[in-house]
């Protein structure tokens, strides 16, 4: 136990035992008969056997003996061999030097490339921050104080397209969405109190199946309050801030609960939690509720959240008109597989892309949606299809549905918005509103003539 395994080797070595085989790093070797030879003697014997004289490389090419272990395994190729092994030949030493220099040069190239990449990212980030800072000054000092007079000007619309500064985003959203319902913070508190009473009275022993059944009851949509508890944990799960115990969990619960009591005819529908969460991240609690209630009162959102099949089919039909106009090849490809818009559009529209796109990109989509209205939601859908057109043309029904249900996470705002900008929302000199209005008119005439309604 007291044996020291790391004692220094003394100069006076005892002769090796004949019967004890020696072991080396590179395997078993025959037993030694003599003491290890000096490196000079080994070199002389090697030269006599091969007939070649060894010329040491110039001092600059040789690496000095070091007293510490090399930091990199790549540097080991420059180290001299142990004294009991033949020294490297000139060719081998030069080859090792060349290999080492090549590795060092390649590593430097990678470092330079990565450094350039980091600098480029920093320059772009700095440029973006400068742009946001200058835009914020314009929004705060010029646009917001004169909102009604400036909101429709070309300059403001162009600035709006580039994305709203985060510091003014919530304010601009509130102004753009408006408050046609005339909801006040006091009204929010009233419906929040009602929601809390319902939560308190709900039996804790109810099973999840009972909750689902109660939530689906048309007679009492307020019972869908309990569906909220099941759905909040699924809202932006990677952020954790909306999970139980997170800073925004109770806030999201309150906004959704108050809305369910405010609009029992609609109740809570899956997908609402994502919309409310985005608003909560940008607005104060009462303001988020006001914007949420008014946003869901828009014709498109009301049609989807109330599951008005007739209206939803008209939106899908209008979408297909512009789909065929902008992307004819992909349109025919989808048609060949009978792949209808409801398969992918419903999820996008229900959450206003906040579930399908990265959060920062979804917020930029919201920016222009607040500017242009429902038309931009469908234009964004066409922009996504345009962005991935080449990939989608190679896929079958199943893979297309899977791809559009879960879009790639590396999608960037620059690429998507360039594709959205290329989409023309005009068909036979008719814009979105005109095409949709004509579909509504055709449907009304069809009802008068007792014709079947538009089918999917």
UniProtKB/TrEMBL annotation:
<feature type="domain" description="Rab-GAP TBC">
    <location>
        <begin position="163"/>
        <end position="373"/>
    </location>
</feature>
<keyword id="KW-0175">Coiled coil</keyword>
<dbReference type="GO" id="GO:0031267">
    <property type="term" value="F:small GTPase binding"/>
</dbReference>
<dbReference type="GO" id="GO:0031410">
    <property type="term" value="C:cytoplasmic vesicle"/>
</dbReference>
<dbReference type="Pfam" id="PF00566">
    <property type="entry name" value="RabGAP-TBC"/>
</dbReference>
<dbReference type="InterPro" id="IPR000195">
    <property type="entry name" value="Rab-GAP-TBC_dom"/>
</dbReference>
<dbReference type="InterPro" id="IPR050302">
    <property type="entry name" value="Rab_GAP_TBC_domain"/>
</dbReference>
<protein>
    <submittedName>
        <fullName>TBC12 protein</fullName>
    </submittedName>
</protein>
<dbReference type="GO" id="GO:0005773">
    <property type="term" value="C:vacuole"/>
</dbReference>
<dbReference type="GO" id="GO:0016192">
    <property type="term" value="P:vesicle-mediated transport"/>
</dbReference>
<dbReference type="InterPro" id="IPR035969">
    <property type="entry name" value="Rab-GAP_TBC_sf"/>
</dbReference>
<feature type="coiled-coil region">
    <location>
        <begin position="90"/>
        <end position="125"/>
    </location>
</feature>
<dbReference type="GO" id="GO:0005096">
    <property type="term" value="F:GTPase activator activity"/>
</dbReference>
